[in-house]
Amino acid sequence: MTQQYAISHWPDTQEIMDQLNRLVGQPMRPLSRDRMERVLAYFTERCRKSKALTDEAKKYIPGGVQHNLAFNHPFPLAVDRAGGAYLWDVDGNRYIDFLQAGGPTLLGSNYGPVQEKVMALIRECGAATGLFHEYELKLAKLINRHMPAVEMFRMLGSGTEAVMAAIRAARNFTGKQKIIKMGGGYHGWSDQMVFGMRIPGTGAFEAHGIPAGCLEGTQEVFPNDIEGLRTIMAQNEKNLGGTAAVIVEPLGPESATRPVTADFNQHVRELCDEFGVLLIFDEVVTGFRVGLGGAQGYFSIRPDLTVFGKCVAGGYPAAGGLGGRRDIMNTLAAGIGSDKPRVMVGGTLAANPLSCAAGYHAIIEIEKHQAHVVAGRAGDRLCKGLQQIIAKYDLPFVAFNHGSICHLETSGVMLMDINNPKIFEEIGPRKHMMEEMGAAFMAEGVVTLAGSRLYTSMADTDAVIDDALEGFDRVLSGVEG
Ligand SMILES: Cc1ncc(COP(=O)(O)O)c(C=O)c1O
Asked: CA angle 258-310-193, nearest 5°?
C-alpha cells in the first residue's frame, strides 16, 4: 500500500514568513484589559483546586510543576483525567486538548486498545526486566518496514538522549568534529544542543551552566540559508576539523515555527553528500505524526541517522531512539560481551518492554486507522477556521499548519529577529502576551502548547474542531483595537 501523509499541501513558506515578519514588525495586539480580567476571573473562580495544589507544589517543586510545557499563566492547571480529545482538571472543567502531551498522543489521549496491551504486558512481566524482550524486535522491524532508511534501531529513554547518541555516533563514524544545527531548532537539552535555541543567531545565549568548551563543536545556520550552510561546511573542511553531521527538524525549527521551503531538505542532503557529512533527521515530532514513513518518507529523502521520540512509545514514558544506516548503527552495539570499540550509550530503563510494546501497538493502530491522515485533516480544518477568524476581526495574527502540527502566532515572540535592536526590550512583553492568549484559550476550554502551537489527533472530529473554533472566535473578538 502506498504511504499516505498528513500534509495535504505544502504551505507557501515565503508567504508565511512575510506574514510573520509583518506581525513582528508592528506593535502588539493583546486582549483588552477588560477581557483579560474576565479570563483571570475564570481561573480564580473555577480552578480553585488547581491553584491550591500548584501553590503547595511551589514549596517542593521548582516553579510548582515538573514539565516545561505546563508553565501556564496565571497558574498551572492540575489535570487528573484524559481521554480522546479531552482533558479534565481537578476542578472538573473539561478542555479540548491541543497540547497532546507535547505531541505523542496522535491516536488521542489514553487510547484504549494501546492501554489494554500495555496493561497485559505489565501483568505478565512488569515494566522492565533489564533483559531482551521480543517487543524490542517487533518495534525495530515495524519502524524499518515504514522507514527503510532506519536499517537498525536502538531504543533510548528520550529524544534528548537520542540526539546525544546521534551526535556521538556521527563524530565517531566520520572522524570529523563539527555539528551544524538550524538556528531556532530544538533538539532537546543536552549540553551541546543548548545553542541557537528558539531565535536563530542566539548561539550560547541560553547555555547557563554549560562550559563553553561543550559548545565549541556546535554551529548554527539560519533556516533556509543553503548558501550559508555551504560556506560553513567549506570553512569546517578547510581548518576546523570538518563537519560530522547536520541535524535538522525536517519541517523547520521548533516544529516549523519557522517553516522551511519544500526543497530545503533535499538541498541539505545534496550538500551533505558533497562534503561527506552525515544527515540527521530529528523526527521526534514528525515521526509518525507526518506519516508512518516520517518526514523522510514525505520528502523522499534518506537521512543517515534518524532521531525518534514522542510517538515512538505511543505516548508512554521512555520515548526515544536512534535509527539509521547499519554501518553507523552497529557502532552502538549493546551487551556486556561486545569487544569492538563502540560509541557509549546506555540507560537502565531504555528499551523497556513497556515502552516498546506501547510504541509497537500505537504504530499498528496508527496504520490501521491512518491516524496521521485523520489528525492531519483535523489540523487543516482547525487552521482554515483560525485563518477565517483572523480575517473576520482583521487581525495581524498568523495561522498555518503542516497536517496535525498547527501554529497560531499572535505575539510573534518566537519569530523575533536577532538583528532587531529592540529585541531584548520586546521579548518580555511579547512572551507575556503569548501567555495571556494561552490563558484566554484555556478559559474558553481549549488547551494549547504555550498559547501558540496546536497538535491535533485522531480523536479530533469535525464537531470537536468546530467547538474549539467557537472558543477561539470568542477570544479573538476581545483583542484590543
Ligand atoms: C524536535 C525535537 N527534538 C528533540 C526533542 C527532545 O525530546 P525529549 O523531550 O524526549 O527529550 C524534542 C522535544 O520536544 C523535539 O521537539
From this structure: 55
